[in-house]
Amino acid sequence: MRRMSGFNIVSLTFGLAFLYLPMVVLVIYSFNASKLVTVWAGFSTQWYGELIRNEAFLDAALVTLKVGLISSTIATVLGTMAAWILVRSGRFLGRTLFSGMIYAPLVMPEVITGLSLLLLFIGIDLDRGVLTIVLAHTTFSMCYVSVVVSSRLASFDTSLEEAALDLGCTPWQSFRLVTLPIIAPAVISGWLLAFTLSLDDLVIASFAAGPSSTTLPMKIFSAVRLGVSPEINALSTIMIGIVATGVILFSLMSKRATIRQQQEERDAARSEA
Amino acid sequence: MRRLILILVPYLWLLALFLVPFLIVVKISLSDVALARPPYFPQLDLSGGWAAIRDFVAELDFENFAFLASDDLYWKAYLSSLRIALISTLLTLLIGFPVAYGMASARPEWRPTLMMLVILPFWTSFLIRVYSWMGILSQNGLLNTFLLWTGVISEPLTIMNTEIAVYIGIVYTYLPFMILPIYATLEKLDGSLLEAAEDLGCSRTSAFWLVTVPLSKPGIIAGCFLVFIPAIGEFVIPSLLGGSDTLMIGKVLWEEFFNNRDWPVASAVAVVLLAILIIPIVLFQRNEQKNREAGQ
Amino acid sequence: MPQTVFAPWEDPDEKPLIRFQNVTKKFGDFTAIQSIDLDIYTREFFALLGPSGCGKTTLMRMLAGFETPTTGKILLGGEDIAATPPNKRPVNMMFQSYALFPHLSVWENVAFGLKREGREKDEIATRVADMMRLTRLDKFARRKPHQLSGGQRQRVALARSLAKAPKLLLLDEPLGALDKKLREETQFELMDIQEKTGTTFVIVTHDQEEAMTVASRVAVMDEGQLVQVATPDRIYEYPNSVYVADFIGDVNIIEGAASQSGDKVLVTWAEGASPLVATSTAMLTKDQHCYLAIRPEKITITAEEPETTNKVHGEIIDIGYLGNISTYHVKLPTGHMVKAQSTNTRRLSRRNFTWEDKVWLSWSDTAAVLLER
Prior knowledge:
The complex is a heterotrimer. Chain B is mainly alpha-helical. Chain B is 77% helix and 1% strand.
């Protein structure tokens, strides 16, 4: 592409401002002493204090974390298996149905997924609670994991696996010692994606959860339905902070790793002969 | 043998937790509402053998679908969902394309950072991003306060709880889905093509319309589907930012299920919604397939 | 029979290490290998040569165990190996892409196969050290593959595949990724290592010069079949078909009709031209359709009419100057284009011939090879 024009700078600035301004406002107002949105009554951290003392939020946060950790871990295992099947297994009976079931949940409206799972849980008489939310989250996030992992597997040089077999590995050893370490970054991002999706989900969890189990998004939703609340602002700020730190650290690290690798490759090429 | 187990585990999982539940939805959409637990009729009793199954099938009917067709609430909800999704997709394209174009024309060393800035909101909670607009758009919110202060308006605008708020919400939350695929195609665009177009007598503007836009079409199409499809079934945005007169089918389904406890009608709403979505989903898959083949 | 040179294929008592018995391999409707019989002997450096898609890689992958023959048998040391999976075969492979494990260091790559055998730590360390010394990699043990140059990676791949001391080492286009100069150096290194370790090497290549340089015998393949299996010099001097003659080196092919005349063969090739003389061991029918293959370097180019029986007169159309030699493209009155090469013993400015010169081309009675197909 070509050099930056004034128009490009304006559209970039406007676009990024549009993406970030609402969140910046949210963060600023979480430190507002007043309960009202429009009135700035000075800097205060009182809402954070109240948030920590609010046990309902803490309980919901714990449920959410528990569901997120369990479901994303199972989803990563299942999703990696599914990706392997999609990329490597060749033809088998019902392959089209299988890949359809992997891709459909990605575009399925959440209300439909939620409704259908709830009807299933009732149909088989399964008590709704943490277990049912985990089952529901695992199902849709394994599809995301398998998409992430299968795109990595598709570009994987199969001669690496053949080399491992050739050097005496069983197929399982070749997966564990060669394939898995190499696709690990994709598997980890799949896990992170599954975890974030689970932490974020409101609709499916609302259908799958029983009266005794409430997740954080459900809690937030019922609180903000009534209007803006400074406590939610504080909670949002914490969540935005964690995600921002994580994503920025991760991209800085991967950027440094890429630069180092490129440097080393240049050095190696220079040392030829 | 190992291979069979490897295939069976995720396969059975998806069958049991994705396909079977959906068949249940279809089944219940053909049932009648009842004051019972669970609140629908007939119940399938497999222990009754073939006769029970025959009786069960005989009880199923399309009454709920007829009801959906006769009550104009549902009609309007489907149509207004489609309309809102379409308009907000166009708005997202209008805002997203210049941003993607700006990113692609930025210096290469800036691109990863810009990319990260666009992806970052995607990782933050969807609910929170929708919520963040509530404080801005409300009657005495930041936007009105600011506009009143500058003197642009003398009366506060009513944006919150209207369709405009829903548009803003959808555009805002789905913007990264539009920017990223367009950016991906623009970034691959060979700069010498534009130079060739200008060399052959195009002006900057006509080169943009004759070369850049047609070549970024796959990205534009992908971005539009990625916004349009989920926007149709959207629930959170209309229920937080929309008003009571903002009809969207996701919200209708939710209320039918949780407030009216009419499971058969809610299921019928879901079945029809899916039938509507199948067309864009198939088109989207075909577009992706085509891009993948062109990429190879 | 006392042997002064290495030629086990000529000894009827010698047992082959590998024996292909009527092996056919099909992928769906496509026949990649068509009923091949082939023996490869211990300590041989055997080259499978052919254009891409000729089946050479499939043949190699069947030895490694990544493909199984559709019909026929492959024997290794007399035993059928069809049912043995790749990880149980005493065969190792050096991959075209090298397939170095990017997440492991050079040392760990070389030790990978040894660790799978569950050997003692000390034993592994000694063996890896030996391999690194053999391939001159001692200094790079801790590096990762991406920190190595192309030539170094190639040596790691070789060390890794040799570490388990396989009975048979397969090399799939091992030098394809190297530039020309490095490739030539490495060819000699490969031969040296093969000799030192005494391992049987089977190399797959599409580069005829490479096959000729390194191999004890070359198998030329085309469309899933073996066209000729012989030592490099025989392949070059006595190709058995136009295909082989044309594939290996440069050649002039002249079509004609052959007739026996004593121990010589006369080939009528153009109206009004005197027949060309060649030798052949094959029994020919009268006026049999045949091809004469003459290597350009065997053709002498002179201004005066020579005294030999094989001579043609023509005009120089083009000269290809390669530094050490020049190739002259000479057009005959019959329309044939004949290439002749001569060594540039003098400087270019003092060259004897130039464009549009009329010259005589001549060759001895034994220079041309008579081919039936």
